[in-house]
């Protein structure tokens, strides 16, 4: 659309230029005034100069317009990335606030009953009956706390779930499109190996975008300190037996300390000063809610590979 309008504007520029040249002194006026050859040539040169000036102005306007559009596009992308991150932070903040609010009461009751049990037991003649009752109340409060967490998780899932038949390659493309300026800014080169023969999956597009976005943001973070080799991110998708697909994101970042590899999916585990340690745990619960698996392994010779396995429709 934009290319068409640009062609039309350049064409108009040429037409105006040509019209100015053609509207110059014609044969009639030439006959009337009978100017000499040098005057005719200088008149033509002047008209040509005017035509070129018109052309230059049109091209200048076009370049300025293209630059303005490019700037607006980059700003829009940066804004979208910011929104995606803010949404996640806001959701995580809200979730942790509601968890801590709901959990405070049973935790306080557990602490009070544990103190009471210790007092009953430390008497000269321990009161086993009271101690037992306090311990039973502790068990009850612990179940309540776990129900609260279960309820919040269920509510969280139900609210955001919107299943549709999806082409995972398209989901990948959308996220990388969204993150294009972020990847460019961090000098990350993306290599795609997306299989055209993927089965479709039933899933929530926004949630799966969130998974890929988190994995890519982690990869960018992991490569931010790499200066002695290319920062490359290989994204591949393929059929996966028995019936499903596997999506792999392999970066050339600093890799994961083998001691940490079992902990990275735990909520609040982070090695970053600005991290919340929630990205991967959110990713894993989303993938598992889609009946899939999310795994990490050390890539060779550097970096980390994350694999998302999803079952096909039905
Ligand atoms: N691609 C990767 N390369 C190296 N380490 C990684 C990679 N992805 C995750 N990690 C490690 O796993 C940890 C947990 O990742 P996770 O995404 O859950 O949290 P985070 O990135 O620290 O914070 P946030 O909540 O903002 O995402 C990271 O702090 C990092 O140590
Ligand atoms: Mg993260």
Label this structure with key terms.
314 residues, alpha+beta, Heat Shock Protein 90, 3 domains, five-stranded mixed β-sheet, 8 helices, elongated, binds adenosine-5'-triphosphate, binds magnesium ion
Strand and helix map with partners:
Layout: H1 2-22, H2 27-33, H3 37-122, H4 128-160, E1 163-166, H5 168-178, H6 180-185, E2 188-194, E3 201-204, H7 205-223, E4 231-240, E5 244-251, H8 279-289, E6 293-298, E7 304-311
Parallel strand pairs: 2-4
Antiparallel strand pairs: 1-3, 4-5, 5-7, 6-7
Helix pairs in contact: 1-3, 3-4, 5-7, 7-8
The protein binds adenosine-5'-triphosphate and magnesium ion (MG).
What this model shows, in words?
The chain has a five-stranded mixed β-sheet. A hairpin with a 5-residue loop joins strand 6 and strand 7 (304-311). It has eight helices and seven strands; from the N terminus they run H-H-H-H-E-H-H-E-E-H-E-E-H-E-E. It has 314 residues and is an alpha+beta fold. It has three domains: 2-76; 85-161; 164-311, 2-Layer Sandwich (Heat Shock Protein 90). It binds adenosine-5'-triphosphate and magnesium ion (MG). Magnesium ion binds at residues 214, 217-218, 275, 279.
């Amino acid at each position: 659309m934009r290319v068409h309008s640009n062609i039309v504007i350049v064409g108009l520029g040429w037409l105006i230029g040509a019209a100015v040249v053609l509207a110059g002194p014609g044969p009639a006026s030439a006959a009337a005034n009978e100017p000499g050859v040098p005057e005719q040539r200088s008149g033509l040169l002047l008209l040509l100069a005017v035509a070129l000036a018109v052309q230059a102005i049109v091209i200048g306007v076009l370049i300025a317009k293209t630059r303005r559009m490019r700037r607006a596009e980059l700003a829009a992308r940066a804004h979208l990335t910011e929104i995606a991150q803010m949404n996640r932070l806001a959701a995580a903040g809200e979730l942790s606030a509601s968890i801590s609010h709901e959990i405070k009461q049973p935790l306080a009751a557990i602490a009070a009953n544990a103190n009471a049990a210790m007092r009953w037991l430390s008497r000269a003649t321990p009161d086993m009956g009271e101690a037992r009752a306090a311990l039973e109340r502790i068990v009850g409060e612990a179940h309540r706390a776990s129900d609260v967490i279960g309820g919040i998780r269920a509510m969280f899932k139900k609210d955001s779930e919107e299943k549709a038949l999806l082409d995972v390659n398209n989901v990948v493309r959308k996220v990388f499109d969204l993150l294009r300026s972020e990847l460019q800014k961090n000098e990350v080169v993306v290599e795609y190996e997306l299989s055209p023969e993927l089965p479709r999956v039933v899933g929530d597009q926004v949630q799966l975008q969130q998974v890929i976005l988190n994995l890519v943001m982690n990869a960018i973070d992991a490569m931010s300190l790499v200066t002695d080799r290319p920062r490359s991110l290989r994204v591949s998708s393929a059929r996966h037996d028995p019936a499903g697909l596997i999506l792999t994101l392999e970066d050339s970042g600093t890799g994961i300390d083998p001691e940490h590899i079992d902990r990275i999916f735990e909520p609040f585990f982070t090695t970053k000063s600005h991290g919340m340690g929630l990205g991967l745990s959110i990713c894993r619960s989303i993938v598992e809610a889609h009946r899939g698996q999310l795994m990490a392994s050390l890539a060779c010779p550097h970096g980390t590979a994350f694999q998302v396995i999803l079952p096909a429709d039905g």
